[in-house]
Amino acid sequence: MFLSLRRRLAVSAPAGLIVLAGCANFSADGGFSVVERSAREHLGRDVRWARSEADHAALRERVAELLREPIDVDAAVQIALFNNPGLQAALEELGIAEAELVRAGRLPNPGISLARLRRGDELEWERGLHLDLAALLSLPMRRQIEERRFAQTQGSAATAVLALAADTRK
After folding, report:
1. How far is 163 from 155, CA to CA, in rounded Å?
2. Strand locations in the chain, DSSP E?
3. pLDDT at site 19
4. Which residue among 50, 63, 117, 158 is least packed, with the fewest CB closer than 10 Å?
């Protein structure tokens, strides 16, 4: 009886941990959709987050196209939204905040120890499995804190877009 319970725990505990570990994942857009929607609602303009060199090249090409045309206030705002490195840095903060959110939702790594002890002719093997219980118990609270931080970062990025547009219009 005791052995079968031990076997069941040995099989079900790791399976449960694997299922729980997969709960926190990255979103497809890194939280950028909130910023993008805000820019469209309030400005009627596009904002792009250049995450790769190809994205940067596409933005440079789009800025070059806009500069070939006569520039009015709306075109100047669009150029500023595409070409401002400070805004791109604010958008990069979204990626960092999302990474922190995902990390906060993941289970702490377990530790395994194995020791070989010898006393005279006697040989003893010591095995251990440990988990940071405090990190495990604080997981829901840490996840909630990081969700709030992520939402705050989204708001800050959206505010940066609107502030850049307002400054450009001046």
Report:
1. 12
2. 111-119, 122-130
3. 47
4. 117
